[in-house]
Structures are given as structure tokens and as C-alpha cells.
Amino acid sequence: MSQSLSKREQIRRKNIVRRRKNWATFGLISIAVIGVLILVVGLPKWIMSAKKPTESNGFEVGEVNAPLTVEIFSSFSCSHCKDFSDNEEKPFIDAYVNTGQVLYRYFNLPSLNEQSILASIASYCAADQNRFFDYKELLYTYAFVQDGFSKDNLIKYAGYTSMDKEKFASCLSSDTYAEAYQYDREYASSAGIRYTPSFLINGQIYTTSELNQVVESLLGN
């Protein structure tokens, strides 16, 4: 009887050890799965937050793999830039960007006054909500109105689009994009841009009057 109990005890202990090993294995697998989930969910957000803040690569519209890239260097306080935005930009986008032939990239070069720089910062906040081009049109609309680029007015314009106005106001009040325009200026300077609006295509600078003809030629149309 005692021998039988001894064997039973041995079996019981073996079962306990086996169950502990199983739980330990399960625990390690669970930790590994949780770790993978954290990486899958959290890593993209971490990468985006690491890449996000102030360095500008321009504001793009069009097919990323379009055969031609056109970069415009413009200023919200420039009358000729306003003329292009009001009268020529939309036909250009319809003809070349919306047809997949051109990737159109915008760089903002504000004049060195407080409201112009604030408008530039506001455009980055609009880009955060994928409303840069909608907001840009409003900036040009009110560019030469008195206090057109005051902080209150810039927030008000955000309400004219489908942006989250509170989120926009918070962005504008922060210093996230306080010096973002500096990167655009540095890039413009390195490319030889001296005035606005200017267009950079294949490393060459062109004026508004040359734009369509050059694009047609380079596309072989």
C-alpha cells in the first residue's frame, strides 16, 4: 500500500512539474506575443512621431511615381504668388497632376515678418490634417486684408474647412512648426531660388510664364 502511494505521489509530482513547465512555456509565449503586438501597434506611431516635427519635404499632391516632379517655391504674402494660385494653379493641376503626369510639391518661403511666418506655421498645422491645399487657398484669399494673418483669423480660416479647429489652434499655439519654414528656405537657397514664385524641375529654375511650355516639352506631349 505504501509502495502504491509512493508511486501515486511520484506521478502527482511529475504532473505538477509538467503543469508548471506548461504554464511557464505559456507565459513566455504570451509575453512574446504581447511584445510583438506592442511593436506592431506602437512602432509605426513611434516612427511617425520621430519623423514628424519640423523638417519639411514639401506639401505634395499627385501620383508619387509620376514621370515628372514640379516644385513650386511660393509665399503667402507675395502678390504674384497669389495671382498664380488664384488663376493658374488649378488649371495646371487639372491638366498635369490629376492626370498622373506630374507630382506637384509646394515649398513656402514667408517674408520675414511675424504674420507671414505665422501663416507659414499655420499651413503646416493644416497639412497635419491633410488640408494644406484647401487652407492655402484661404491664405491667399485673405493675404492682403488687414490683419489677414493674425492668429485669431488663421484659426477662423481653419473653421472654413473640415479641419478640427481645436486641434489646429493647439498646433498653432505650440512650437512644433515654429522653425519649419527654415528648412524650406535652406532647400530653396541650395537650389538657387531667389524669388517667388519659382518652379524647380529637374534641377532647373523656371518662371510662371515658362511653366506649361517646359512641362509639355519634358513630358513629350
Nutshell version of this structure?
With 221 residues, the chain is of the alpha+beta class. The chain contains eight helices and five strands; from the N terminus they run H-E-E-H-E-H-H-H-H-H-E-E-H. The radius of gyration is 29 Å and the shape is globular.
Commentary on this structure:
By secondary structure, this protein is α+β, with helices and mostly antiparallel strands. It folds into two domains: about 1-50; about 60-220, 3-Layer(aba) Sandwich (Glutaredoxin), CATH 3.40.30. The protein has eight helices and five strands; from the N terminus they run αββαβαααααββα. The protein has helices spanning about 1-50, 80-95, 115-130, 130-140, 150-160, 165-175, 180-190, 210-220, and strands at about 60, 70-75, 100-110, 200, 205. It has a five-stranded mixed β-sheet with strand order 1-3-2-4-5. The longest helix is centred in the first third of the chain and has 50 residues, at about 1-50. It is globular and about 45 Å long. The termini are far apart. Mean pLDDT is about 80; it is low at about 1-5 and about 35-55.
